[in-house]
């Protein structure tokens, strides 16, 4: 992976875009500190999908589980409740 300053990215965006389109991520620094990364589209899409999946799992894990004494409802009972609650 290449590391390039933000000034260099501004001045050479076309050639850096070609590097990324070729499959190589590019880290961008500001004042010597890595602050962002430019990724090929397919890799970024996959990374974003994985990130969102982890967020969803964390959200679902934080949800309270059903109470042990809660009654089990049949699909027919659920359907009846839905119809009762509709305006």
Strand content: 15-25%
Round the mean pLDDT to the nearest integer and report it: 93
Which of globular, elongated, flat, extended, rod-shaped describes the shape?
elongated
Percentage of residues in helical conformation: 55-70%
The CA-CA distance between the termini, in Å, is 59 Å
Strand order of the largest sheet: 1-2-3
Describe the fold and architecture.
This protein is of the alpha+beta class and 87 residues long. The chain has a domain at 2-45: YefM-like fold. The protein is 55% helix and 17% strand. It is built from four helices and three strands. It has helices spanning 6-11, 13-21, 41-62, 75-85, and strands at residues 2-5, 26-30, 33-38. It has a three-stranded mixed β-sheet. Strand 2 and strand 3 (33-38) form a beta hairpin. The chain is elongated, with a radius of gyration of 24 Å. It starts with a strand and ends with a helix. The mean pLDDT is 93.
């Amino acid at each position: 992976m290449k590391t390039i300053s933000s000034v260099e990215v501004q001045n050479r965006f076309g050639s850096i875009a070609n590097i990324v389109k070729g499959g190589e991520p590019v880290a961008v620094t500001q004042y010597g500190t890595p602050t962002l990364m430019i990724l090929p589209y397919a890799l970024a899409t996959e990374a974003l999908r994985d990130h969102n999946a982890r967020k969803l799992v964390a959200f679902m894990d934080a949800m309270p589980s059903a109470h042990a004494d809660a009654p089990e409802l049949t699909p027919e009972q659920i359907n009846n409740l839905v119809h009762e609650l509709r305006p």
